[in-house]
């Protein structure tokens, strides 16, 4: 079984600054996906960024980037130029990748980090 | 527009009643899931289905039941056996199989269930 740990229950940052959210995971699998999801007050789950474990290059999506350290089982999210709309709960999630590249979306979530961006 | 529709958004249940949450998707996704979220917590998997007429228990299936008679529909019934059903329920789907998209999970907007 996989476990995902987010050790920061709450974080805050000033608008336009950079913040990093931490995530560690434990698994015996070698092939998997890692995700960061954002959940604003509306409760809608929004995909922020995705990383395939077999890719060494860290994923980036505009102001969002990850630092993926496979050996250390660490997957942190960096948000640059923070905006007020980034205020939300952020979840780190793990999904096993089956042989042949298939997977069936059994996401294992961390407990979440509440991020508040201050003006 | 393509997406996942959950209904109702708010539901109140009396003690001893069964209630059913609806989840419909028009994304042509093979796999569908139900997650439960308690306040301030992450999501936990209740049930999932990879193909029509087949489904598997997740981590917290006790007190819940599902069916998958159609590809686009995956209703969740919260039975009276579920002792603490008050929570936020999220339905999700993905295009299982060899997808270059990395099998991204798409979520509905959720349903709030409260026991009164």
The helix tally of chain B amounts to: 0
Strand content of chain B: over 45%
User: What multimeric state do the chains show?
Assistant: heterodimer
Distance between the termini of chain B: 35 Å
Level of helix content of chain B?
Answer: under 10%
Low-confidence stretches of chain A: none
Evaluate the radius of gyration of chain A.
14 Å
Helical content band of chain A? under 10%
Low-confidence stretches of chain B: none
Largest sheet of chain A: 6 strands, mixed
Secondary structure: number of strands of chain A: 12
Number of strands of chain B: 11
Structural class of chain A: mainly beta
Q: Over the alpha carbons, how many angstroms does the gyration radius of chain B reach? A: 14 Å
Q: What is the average of the pLDDT values of chain A?
A: 91
> From the helix content, strand content and strand pairing of chain B, which structural class follows?
mainly beta
How would you sum up the global shape of chain B? globular
Overall average pLDDT of chain B: 89
Task: Provide key terms for this protein.
heterodimer; A: 119 residues; mainly beta; B: 116 residues; four-stranded antiparallel sheet
Description:
The complex is a heterodimer of chains A (119) and B (116). Chain A is mostly beta strands. Chain A has no helices and twelve strands. In chain A, the strands form three sheets. In chain A, strands 2, 5, 6, 10, 11 and 12 form a six-stranded mixed sheet that branches. A four-stranded antiparallel sheet of chain A has the order 3-9-8-7, with no helix packed on it. In chain A, a hairpin with a 6-residue loop joins strand 5 and strand 6 (46-52). The mean pLDDT of chain A is 91. Chain B has 116 residues and is mostly beta strands. In chain B, strand 4 (31-37) and strand 5 (43-51) form a beta hairpin. The N and C termini of chain B lie far apart (35 Å). Chains A and B meet through strand 6 of A and strand 4, strand 5 and strand 9 of B.
